[in-house]
Write a structure and sequence with these properties.
The protein has 132 residues and is mainly alpha-helical. 77% of the residues lie in helices and 0% in strands. The protein has a domain of 73 residues: 434 Repressor (Amino-terminal Domain) (Orthogonal Bundle). Helix 2 crosses helix 3. The radius of gyration is 29 Å and the shape is rod-shaped.
Amino acid sequence: MKTVKKIEIILSHLDIKAPTFAKKIGTTYQQIWDIQRKKTQKISGELAKKINATYPQFSIEWLLSDTNEMPAFISNSGKQNINTGINNGSQIISDQSHEIELLKKHIATLEQAVSDKMKIIELLERKNKSKK
């Protein structure tokens, strides 16, 4: 597997951008950028150690190897993670829809209260004018 692809997999799995990744592992964004632009062809031992120290799910062996095998946590759980993400997203949308409905009901209640108060004000103003 090409080094560029490994960096893409890491960034995708962590759901972070390259500058954030570089900062978290204690290297420069330039070093990651050089890999992404194929200026640097291999992950160095030092960089592999930094990645592994911060993100132990990425083994040094995998980072340094030329293997085409995906890390076990990605190849075994990719579909499951996608489905879990969809289910979680559906639940969030459902929760938000429920909250929106509650807010709409609350707004309707407040609008009715305002309408009632306006009627009281009108009655009091008419009563006040009739006294004059």
